[in-house]
Amino acid sequence: MNYEKLALEVEGIAREAAAFIREKAGNIGESAVEHKGLHNYVTAVDKGSEELIVKRLSALLPEATFLAEEGTGKVGESRFRWVIDPLDGTTNFIHSIPLFSISIALMENGETVIGSVFEVNHGESFLAWKDGPALLNGKPIHVSRRNDMHESLLATGFPYYDYDLLDPYLQLFRSFLKNTRGLRRLGSAALDLAWVACGRFDGFYEYGLNPWDVAAGAFIVERAGGDNTDFSGGKNFIFGKQILSSNGLLHNDLLREIQQFF
Asked: Are 154 and 28 members of one domain?
């Protein structure tokens, strides 16, 4: 398989979906917002973006199945499976906060081989494929080279439904506030990961995430020279609902800090 050619096709599909989302942005009223669960929202734009993406990807790889946030497409195990978040940062989108993205990953026999994260408002396209580079708008990117946690800038996400681990999360948050340059919360895990890949952030951690939140971004981090683990230091970060992503140089220090509380 020509992963590079396929990745560029995926990038084009993400760009098309981003144009659809931008066209609808600012016209979503509260009556158009559906509740999937506690503080978990979906709009017709999420669904429309996913339908567009699934239709285009199905034409590229008819045999592939889908793991998509809104459940569109053929499901089940297969050699090829697309993992899709059609609008990562729906709450930002609803409130007209211009930080949301599209995340598309392709897994082959359980291994991620393509990752695309497209930032909708500024048109930043983060892309990687198996044995290839990590790119931002066609130019190679690399994780940061900071090796001192006190000089690092981290990203995280706030739990919005699973509060069982809220106390250790807040303790860890406090510790990182005291021992880094600071913490940021964008509201889109896919973008958090993409920004680790290009060196804007030195690390990102969060729990309670789904595969479509992290599959593409974590792969781009890997191809950019970084590292991803779960909070135990293992590799179950796509389906294990917790991830630490870093530039690699800081990974052990960040992991030790996390493991004090988790």
From this structure: no
